[in-house]
Amino acid sequence: MRDRFTAYRAARAARAVPPPPPAPTAPADDSTQPEVAVATTTTEAYDRAVPYGIQIASAWAWRVIAIAALLYGLLWVARYLSEVTIQLALAIVLKAMLYPVANRLRSWGLPTGAATAITVLGGLILIAGALTLITSQIANQTAELSDKVADGFATLSMYLQNGPLEINPKYFSVTEWTARLNAFLTDSSGLIATYAAEVGAQLGHFAAGVALTLFALIYFLYDGRSIFAFLLNFFPRQARARVDQAANKGWRALSSYVRATILIALVDAVGVLIAALILGVPVAPALSALVFLGAFIPIVGSLLSGFVAVLVALVALGWVKALIMLASIIFVAQVEGHILQPFLLGRAVKLHPLAVILAIAIGIISGGIVGALMAVPLLAFTKSFIQHLAGDPDPPLVRTLRWPSGPRRR
Length: 410
Known about the structure:
Elements: H1 2-16, H2 44-49, H3 52-80, H4 82-107, H5 112-140, H6 142-162, H7 174-187, H8 189-231, H9 240-279, H10 284-294, H11 301-317, H12 319-345, H13 353-390, E1 400-403, E2 406-409
Antiparallel strand pairs: 1-2
Helix pairs in contact: 3-4, 4-5, 4-8, 4-13, 5-8, 5-10, 9-10, 9-11, 9-12, 9-13, 10-11, 11-12
């Protein structure tokens, strides 16, 4: 026992003694080792001459300029090829609107071609029926409405002549305005012929655009996934899965926005129709259809189309019922903005009102009325696409192997 205790103390004392320092080694021969080139972007003199804040600002500046030049180039190409890009964008929005119908028909067992044909033909028949209803309503009540417009103009002219303004009666003379109109037509015959030729050319472009939109819509509904899979080949192989996921997110946001907008437009149209029928406003179904189409332009569309109904009520029924019609339209707009849009759109396609207004303005500048209609749906797609593409990557898939004792993860 004593021998074991003595050995333990000796071992402990040996561990307490620090180890001797390592022997110095000769420096390595640098001539035999390859030099590693290190790229430097700044020097000490450069850092002293240019403040650090200016360096950061300049690094940001040329990158922002490069991105702005790229965006400007893409916008220029889109405007240069507007007769194609607008039709393709419109076909994509229409596909988001009609895809649930075609998908439901396919789920019932119909072939893809038959489901696509039924969906497109059904949409065309629905549009033709709506246009026929609007035209018939306007044609049936044109005489009554024109008489009331004439009476309202006569009342306004008498007030302007005999009221505080005391405008000269010659400005309201039918003979005077007829003579001025004939003189204008005689002096501007060449200009009118030029405008007529331009209108004919625009009608031809419009017909070609409608044909291209229908052709693209049919193929998007029939084989849209294969077309997008082909476009993925233009991206790097490592980024294709990520871009595909981001595009699916954007497509779901676009589809949700379009379906929600249809429901909101339907509610707006029904509300205006009920108010117009109660007040007895002429051409109420046509005004309701106009509000339905205008509601596809967010924030301003339903209000602008609703003011047409107010103007018709003012001419046909007087200012009291016109004010009641205006109050009804404002009430419908408040219900849309505070209840329908937050409830139907939700957080998936939540867009700031300023972004919506700017998108509509850019759409009007780039593509007119069609650009205003498509600006916000494309903004919804772009927002969801970029957010998913720039967000945190999805967790990698867990590989599962089959072991004798059951599945095991690694």
